[in-house]
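Async update (no meeting this week)

Hi team, since we skipped the sync, here's where things stand on the single-chain job. The sequence we agreed to prioritize is pasted below, unchanged from the tracker. I ran it this morning and attached the output directly underneath so nobody has to dig for it. Comments welcome in thread, and please keep replies under the output.
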Amino acid sequence: MAKVEPMNEERREYFRINDEVVLDYWPIDAAGLDELREKIESKIPERFTTAASFAATSRQIAHAFHSVQNDQPDVARCLQALDDKLNTLAQLFVAEEIRLNDHSTQEVNLSAGGLAFRSRQQLDKGSLVELRLVLFPSLMGMLIAARVIHCEHVNDGNLQYPWQIAVSYELIRETDREILVRHVMAKETELLRQKRQGKQD
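Output:
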């Protein structure tokens, strides 16, 4: 995994947004953490994480496209079309899983270092959870091991989801963290653009 300088890591994790995602989560023990670690560190992605894995590969070969484009533009266009098709296929895998499991989106507060969300059940502070997170509109599916850092019962009338949970990522692919960074920054940029446009209008 690519290493990131600590200061850069801290700075980028300060960026947080409210976002609509698909989120599954459940407590895991030490054995569950070891099993999840094997999945996260595996070089063979499962259907759920294929889109995120393909996105990372696309970034790695982007410079090759530019090199070929200068000398052989037709070949570059063909390679780009194939890459786009593979990414679309990978996104369909995630879309199928969402439909098959009847998932709906929920609002979370998201960053590259953790997230906060409302929950039906209480989770013990310090406990470990497995997260299955899907971003939109990219349909990037991620497997993450996280640790509960905050759990509070909120009396705001939301009886279906009365618990406010905050977690920090314990195990995450560095490529997935980079995807989260780009996603959060893109959303933040779009929000700022909309605010500026609103003021002009």
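Quick observations from my side:
Residues 21 and 36 are 21 Å apart (CA to CA).
Confidence is low (pLDDT under 50) at residues 1-8.
Reply here if anything looks off.
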